[in-house]
Amino acid sequence: MCLINMSIIKCPECRGQVSTMAGTCPHCGTRISGNLRQCPSCGSYCLNAQDKCPECGTELETIVPQEEPRPQATETQTKPAEKKKKPHNSKGPAIIAIVICLILLCTGYYFYNQHRMEQKEQEDYERLEGVTNPEFYQQFLIDYPDSKHFDEINERMLVLQAEAEDWKQLLKGINRSSISLFQQKHPNSLRGRAIEDMLDSIDWNEALAIGNEEAITDYLAKHPSGRYADDASEMKNTLLLSKVTPEEKAMIRGTLESFFTKAIANQDIEAAKAAIPDTMMNFCGKENANAEAIIEYAKEKVANDVIGLHYAIGQKMEVRKETLPDGNTGFAVEVNLQETISRSDTNQPSSNIYHVNALINSEQKLVRMNIIK
Question: Which helix (H) or strand (E) holds 275?
Answer without folding.
Answer: helix 269-275
